[in-house]
Design brief:
There is one protein chain. It contains five helices and 13 strands. The chain has a six-stranded mixed beta barrel with strand order 3-7-4-6-5-8. The N and C termini lie far apart (about 75 Å).
Length: about 270
Amino acid sequence: MNQLANKNFFLLIVLLCVLLSSCGLQEVQDGPPTGNINVSNIPNASPKILPRSSRGNPSSYVVFGKRYYVLNSSKGYHVRGIASWYGTKFNHRLTSSGEPYNMLAMTAANKVLPLPTFVRVTNLANGRQIIVKVNDRGPFKKNRVIDLSYVAAKKLGMLPTGTAYVDVRAIDPRVYLARHTQQPLNKPHARHPGHPLLFLQVAAFMEKTNADKLAQRLKTEFQLPIRIAENHHTRETIYKVQLGPIPSIQLSDNISSQLIHDGYGEPLAVIE
Protein backbone atom coordinates (compact mmCIF):
# COMPACT_ATOMS: atom_id res chain seq x y z
CA MET A 1 0.00 0.00 0.00
CA ASN A 2 2.83 2.35 0.88
CA GLN A 3 4.54 1.58 -2.44
CA LEU A 4 1.33 2.38 -4.33
CA ALA A 5 0.93 5.65 -2.43
CA ASN A 6 4.51 6.62 -3.14
CA LYS A 7 4.07 5.81 -6.82
CA ASN A 8 0.91 7.92 -7.05
CA PHE A 9 2.64 10.77 -5.24
CA PHE A 10 5.57 10.57 -7.65
CA LEU A 11 3.22 10.62 -10.65
CA LEU A 12 1.44 13.66 -9.19
CA ILE A 13 4.75 15.52 -8.84
CA VAL A 14 5.68 14.68 -12.44
CA LEU A 15 2.29 15.90 -13.65
CA LEU A 16 2.65 19.18 -11.76
CA CYS A 17 6.12 19.71 -13.22
CA VAL A 18 4.80 19.14 -16.74
CA LEU A 19 1.96 21.58 -16.17
CA LEU A 20 4.26 24.22 -14.73
CA SER A 21 6.72 23.77 -17.60
CA SER A 22 3.90 24.15 -20.11
CA CYS A 23 2.81 27.36 -18.46
CA GLY A 24 6.37 28.64 -18.54
CA LEU A 25 6.51 28.09 -22.29
CA GLN A 26 3.58 30.42 -22.88
CA GLU A 27 4.99 33.81 -23.72
CA VAL A 28 3.42 36.78 -21.95
CA GLN A 29 2.01 39.11 -24.56
CA ASP A 30 2.91 42.78 -24.50
CA GLY A 31 0.28 45.46 -24.92
CA PRO A 32 -1.33 48.66 -23.64
CA PRO A 33 -2.76 49.16 -20.13
CA THR A 34 -6.45 48.60 -19.51
CA GLY A 35 -8.71 51.61 -19.80
CA ASN A 36 -8.14 54.89 -21.57
CA ILE A 37 -5.00 56.75 -20.54
CA ASN A 38 -5.18 60.50 -21.15
CA VAL A 39 -1.64 61.41 -22.18
CA SER A 40 -2.35 65.09 -22.82
CA ASN A 41 -1.41 65.94 -19.23
CA ILE A 42 1.76 63.83 -19.18
CA PRO A 43 4.68 66.17 -19.88
CA ASN A 44 7.64 65.44 -22.10
CA ALA A 45 10.85 64.44 -20.39
CA SER A 46 12.76 67.50 -19.19
CA PRO A 47 16.37 67.42 -20.39
CA LYS A 48 18.79 67.92 -17.55
CA ILE A 49 22.46 67.33 -16.85
CA LEU A 50 22.75 63.86 -15.31
CA PRO A 51 25.75 61.65 -14.53
CA ARG A 52 26.42 58.64 -16.71
CA SER A 53 24.60 55.62 -15.28
CA SER A 54 26.75 53.09 -13.43
CA ARG A 55 24.69 50.34 -15.07
CA GLY A 56 23.90 49.66 -18.71
CA ASN A 57 26.95 51.40 -20.16
CA PRO A 58 29.52 48.72 -21.02
CA SER A 59 31.91 49.46 -23.85
CA SER A 60 30.11 46.71 -25.77
CA TYR A 61 27.64 43.87 -25.20
CA VAL A 62 26.16 40.93 -27.12
CA VAL A 63 22.47 40.17 -27.68
CA PHE A 64 21.25 37.30 -29.89
CA GLY A 65 24.81 36.78 -31.11
CA LYS A 66 25.31 40.37 -32.29
CA ARG A 67 27.72 42.77 -30.62
CA TYR A 68 26.72 46.39 -30.00
CA TYR A 69 29.14 49.20 -29.11
CA VAL A 70 27.96 51.88 -26.70
CA LEU A 71 28.84 55.41 -27.78
CA ASN A 72 31.17 57.43 -25.57
CA SER A 73 28.97 60.47 -26.11
CA SER A 74 25.56 61.26 -27.54
CA LYS A 75 26.88 64.42 -29.18
CA GLY A 76 25.85 64.61 -32.83
CA TYR A 77 23.65 61.50 -32.69
CA HIS A 78 20.97 61.79 -35.37
CA VAL A 79 19.31 58.88 -37.14
CA ARG A 80 16.17 58.09 -39.08
CA GLY A 81 14.57 54.70 -38.77
CA ILE A 82 11.68 52.67 -37.42
CA ALA A 83 10.34 53.06 -33.88
CA SER A 84 8.45 50.47 -31.85
CA TRP A 85 7.02 50.56 -28.31
CA TYR A 86 6.72 48.38 -25.22
CA GLY A 87 4.11 48.29 -22.47
CA THR A 88 2.53 46.00 -19.86
CA LYS A 89 4.85 43.01 -20.34
CA PHE A 90 7.84 45.00 -19.07
CA ASN A 91 6.10 47.43 -16.71
CA HIS A 92 7.92 47.74 -13.34
CA ARG A 93 10.80 45.54 -14.53
CA LEU A 94 14.26 47.00 -14.13
CA THR A 95 15.66 48.77 -17.16
CA SER A 96 19.29 48.44 -18.20
CA SER A 97 20.13 51.57 -16.20
CA GLY A 98 18.57 50.06 -13.06
CA GLU A 99 15.47 52.25 -13.06
CA PRO A 100 12.07 50.47 -12.99
CA TYR A 101 10.35 50.69 -16.36
CA ASN A 102 7.25 52.87 -16.21
CA MET A 103 5.07 52.66 -19.31
CA LEU A 104 3.36 55.90 -18.23
CA ALA A 105 6.62 57.88 -18.24
CA MET A 106 8.33 59.51 -21.22
CA THR A 107 11.21 57.09 -21.63
CA ALA A 108 12.76 54.93 -24.34
CA ALA A 109 15.29 52.23 -25.13
CA ASN A 110 18.20 52.49 -27.57
CA LYS A 111 20.98 50.07 -28.45
CA VAL A 112 24.01 52.38 -28.48
CA LEU A 113 23.30 55.73 -26.80
CA PRO A 114 24.90 56.26 -23.38
CA LEU A 115 22.43 56.01 -20.50
CA PRO A 116 20.83 58.37 -19.78
CA THR A 117 20.40 60.45 -22.92
CA PHE A 118 17.56 62.78 -23.80
CA VAL A 119 16.36 62.65 -27.40
CA ARG A 120 13.82 64.43 -29.56
CA VAL A 121 11.70 61.99 -31.58
CA THR A 122 9.65 63.13 -34.58
CA ASN A 123 6.99 61.02 -36.28
CA LEU A 124 7.80 61.66 -39.93
CA ALA A 125 4.29 60.71 -41.08
CA ASN A 126 2.25 63.10 -38.91
CA GLY A 127 4.82 65.62 -37.71
CA ARG A 128 4.30 65.02 -34.00
CA GLN A 129 7.37 65.55 -31.87
CA ILE A 130 8.22 64.51 -28.31
CA ILE A 131 11.17 64.39 -25.90
CA VAL A 132 12.05 61.20 -24.02
CA LYS A 133 14.74 59.99 -21.67
CA VAL A 134 16.67 56.97 -22.92
CA ASN A 135 17.25 54.73 -19.89
CA ASP A 136 17.09 51.22 -21.36
CA ARG A 137 18.66 48.98 -24.00
CA GLY A 138 16.84 47.78 -27.11
CA PRO A 139 14.97 47.24 -29.31
CA PHE A 140 16.75 44.19 -30.70
CA LYS A 141 14.37 43.41 -33.52
CA LYS A 142 16.01 44.12 -36.86
CA ASN A 143 15.71 47.60 -38.32
CA ARG A 144 14.40 49.28 -35.16
CA VAL A 145 16.22 52.36 -33.86
CA ILE A 146 14.23 53.15 -30.71
CA ASP A 147 11.68 51.49 -28.42
CA LEU A 148 9.28 54.01 -26.86
CA SER A 149 7.24 53.74 -23.69
CA TYR A 150 3.48 53.33 -24.09
CA VAL A 151 2.66 57.01 -23.40
CA ALA A 152 5.47 58.24 -25.66
CA ALA A 153 4.14 56.08 -28.49
CA LYS A 154 0.61 57.31 -27.88
CA LYS A 155 1.74 60.94 -27.99
CA LEU A 156 3.38 60.24 -31.35
CA GLY A 157 0.18 58.65 -32.67
CA MET A 158 1.79 55.31 -33.48
CA LEU A 159 -0.30 52.91 -31.38
CA PRO A 160 -2.67 51.79 -34.16
CA THR A 161 0.20 50.48 -36.31
CA GLY A 162 2.68 49.67 -33.53
CA THR A 163 5.57 51.18 -35.47
CA ALA A 164 6.41 54.51 -37.10
CA TYR A 165 9.01 56.19 -39.28
CA VAL A 166 10.89 58.51 -36.96
CA ASP A 167 13.70 61.00 -36.76
CA VAL A 168 15.75 60.67 -33.55
CA ARG A 169 18.11 63.44 -32.47
CA ALA A 170 20.10 63.59 -29.21
CA ILE A 171 19.67 66.70 -27.06
CA ASP A 172 22.53 68.52 -25.35
CA PRO A 173 20.95 69.43 -21.97
CA ARG A 174 23.19 72.49 -21.56
CA VAL A 175 22.07 73.97 -24.88
CA TYR A 176 18.46 72.96 -24.32
CA LEU A 177 18.22 74.48 -20.84
CA ALA A 178 19.70 77.74 -22.08
CA ARG A 179 17.00 77.99 -24.76
CA HIS A 180 13.94 76.55 -23.00
CA THR A 181 14.21 77.58 -19.36
CA GLN A 182 10.74 79.15 -19.33
CA GLN A 183 9.03 77.09 -22.03
CA PRO A 184 6.45 74.49 -20.89
CA LEU A 185 6.73 71.02 -22.34
CA ASN A 186 3.27 69.57 -21.72
CA LYS A 187 2.24 69.18 -25.36
CA PRO A 188 4.03 67.42 -28.21
CA HIS A 189 5.37 69.81 -30.77
CA ALA A 190 4.16 69.21 -34.32
CA ARG A 191 5.98 69.82 -37.56
CA HIS A 192 4.63 69.67 -41.05
CA PRO A 193 4.02 65.97 -41.79
CA GLY A 194 5.73 64.38 -44.74
CA HIS A 195 5.49 61.20 -46.76
CA PRO A 196 8.45 59.10 -45.60
CA LEU A 197 9.80 56.46 -47.94
CA LEU A 198 11.39 53.22 -46.73
CA PHE A 199 14.32 51.51 -48.47
CA LEU A 200 16.38 48.50 -47.45
CA GLN A 201 20.08 48.89 -48.17
CA VAL A 202 21.56 45.47 -48.91
CA ALA A 203 25.17 46.43 -49.61
CA ALA A 204 27.53 49.23 -50.59
CA PHE A 205 30.40 49.06 -53.08
CA MET A 206 33.34 51.10 -54.27
CA GLU A 207 32.93 49.67 -57.79
CA LYS A 208 29.71 50.40 -59.67
CA THR A 209 29.95 47.18 -61.66
CA ASN A 210 29.62 45.19 -58.44
CA ALA A 211 26.60 47.27 -57.44
CA ASP A 212 25.02 46.69 -60.86
CA LYS A 213 25.49 42.91 -60.57
CA LEU A 214 23.88 42.76 -57.14
CA ALA A 215 21.03 45.02 -58.21
CA GLN A 216 20.23 42.76 -61.13
CA ARG A 217 20.28 39.66 -58.94
CA LEU A 218 18.01 41.24 -56.31
CA LYS A 219 15.58 42.46 -58.95
CA THR A 220 15.22 38.91 -60.24
CA GLU A 221 14.79 37.40 -56.79
CA PHE A 222 12.43 39.92 -55.17
CA GLN A 223 10.53 41.52 -58.05
CA LEU A 224 10.81 44.90 -56.32
CA PRO A 225 12.16 48.27 -57.42
CA ILE A 226 15.93 48.57 -57.04
CA ARG A 227 18.04 51.69 -56.97
CA ILE A 228 21.73 52.43 -56.69
CA ALA A 229 22.20 55.51 -54.52
CA GLU A 230 25.52 57.28 -54.95
CA ASN A 231 27.28 58.80 -51.96
CA HIS A 232 29.69 61.56 -52.93
CA HIS A 233 30.45 62.76 -49.40
CA THR A 234 33.72 60.83 -49.24
CA ARG A 235 36.82 60.92 -51.43
CA GLU A 236 35.59 57.86 -53.26
CA THR A 237 32.05 57.45 -54.58
CA ILE A 238 30.10 54.78 -52.69
CA TYR A 239 27.37 52.89 -54.55
CA LYS A 240 24.57 51.74 -52.26
CA VAL A 241 22.24 49.00 -53.50
CA GLN A 242 18.76 49.55 -52.06
CA LEU A 243 15.40 47.80 -52.40
CA GLY A 244 12.37 50.08 -52.43
CA PRO A 245 10.52 52.13 -51.77
CA ILE A 246 8.80 49.44 -49.68
CA PRO A 247 5.14 50.18 -48.93
CA SER A 248 5.00 48.90 -45.33
CA ILE A 249 7.17 48.12 -42.32
CA GLN A 250 5.70 44.63 -42.11
CA LEU A 251 6.75 43.89 -45.68
CA SER A 252 10.22 45.27 -44.99
CA ASP A 253 10.51 42.90 -42.00
CA ASN A 254 9.59 39.95 -44.21
CA ILE A 255 12.07 41.00 -46.88
CA SER A 256 14.79 41.50 -44.26
CA SER A 257 14.23 37.98 -42.96
CA GLN A 258 14.45 36.61 -46.50
CA LEU A 259 17.65 38.53 -47.21
CA ILE A 260 19.24 37.13 -44.06
CA HIS A 261 18.07 33.63 -44.91
CA ASP A 262 19.53 33.94 -48.42
CA GLY A 263 22.93 34.97 -47.05
CA TYR A 264 22.88 38.69 -47.86
CA GLY A 265 23.12 39.68 -44.20
CA GLU A 266 20.91 42.08 -42.31
CA PRO A 267 19.92 45.08 -44.46
CA LEU A 268 19.94 48.67 -43.26
CA ALA A 269 16.64 50.56 -43.15
CA VAL A 270 16.90 53.92 -44.90
CA ILE A 271 14.13 56.49 -44.34
CA GLU A 272 13.73 59.45 -46.66
